[in-house]
Design brief:
Blueprint (H helix, E strand, L loop, with lengths): L1 H22 L20 H5 L65 H11 L23 H30 L1 E2 L2 H27 L5 H26 L3 E2 L1
Antiparallel strand pairs: 1-2
Helix pairs in contact: 5-6
GO molecular function, one term: calmodulin binding
Subcellular location: Cell projection, Cilium; Cytoplasm, Cytoskeleton
Pfam family, one: Enkurin
């Protein structure tokens, strides 16, 4: 039994190797094609070519001359021949400057009296009109018209006045609803406030005598201070005179 198992394992390994070799089997390269008439072909194209067109002269076929070397700026292209310039536009141009080779004409004389001619020209000349250096502001186009900023300011003022009038009119009915407090009621209210202030003041003085204060006593003391300040402000208002209530 063991022999058969070993044989089967050996067969499996052989098959695996064969399959692996079959997968990785690289094909052999074919030989390059070579004509059987390779040596018998006519080499005509070599005869038509120059002696050194492709690879240059053979070694030792050319010996440079030691006296011939590259001269400075021998490879730069020369300047073009000068030619006459003509403008393309038809505008009038000044006469050309005389050439250096032109010779001036000598010996020209004139019988004209330039002094008398200048005097005659000066007497016949008309003086130019002097330009006015002073600016006349009355000749401006906008002279006499109100400036634009003034119109805007006036419109803003009128709008503010209109808004104030509307605000006053809206407050008039509220003023009419307010009633004047009578003298008896004002005096009675004033005496009551003063009595309340005295009572609160007495309580406040009693709270200040204690050495140890609890949180409740501190809160009560602060409330008494606020209440006494409110009553004092009310007393000041009532003592001024007329009082209006809604």
């Amino acid at each position: 039994m063991n022999d058969t198992i070993n044989k089967l394992e050996l067969i499996d390994t052989i098959n695996e190797h064969r399959a692996y070799d079959r997968i990785n089997d690289t094909p052999e390269k074919k030989k390059y094609y070579k004509s059987i008439y390779h040596e018998k072909t006519v080499r005509e194209h070599f005869d038509h070519a120059g002696n050194h067109s492709t690879l240059g002269l053979k070694d030792g076929a050319f010996k440079p001359d030691a006296t011939q070397w590259t001269i400075k700026r021998s490879g730069d292209p020369g300047l073009a021949d000068p030619r006459e310039w003509h403008y393309q536009d038809p505008l009038p141009r000044r006469e050309p400057v005389p050439a250096q080779s032109d010779k001036p004409v000598y010996g020209l004389k004139s019988n004209a009296d330039f002094i008398k001619a200048n005097v005659r020209r000066a007497t016949l000349m008309v003086p130019k009109a002097n330009k006015r250096l002073e600016v006349d502001w009355t000749e401006r186009k906008e002279f006499g018209n109100n400036p634009a900023y003034l119109k805007t300011v006036q419109s803003q003022i009128s709008e503010e006045q209109q808004s104030l009038r509307e605000f006053e009119q809206s407050r008039r009915p509220q003023r009419q609803k307010a009633l004047k407090l009578s003298e008896y009621e004002r005096e009675e209210l004033l005496q009551g406030l003063k009595q309340n202030w005295k009572d609160l003041n007495a309580e406040y003085i009693s709270t200040t005598k204690s050495i140890v204060e609890t949180f409740g006593q501190k809160d009560r003391k602060m409330w008494l201070e606020r209440r006494m300040a409110e009553i004092e402000s009310d007393i000041i208002i009532l003592e001024k005179g007329d009082v209006y209530v809604k």
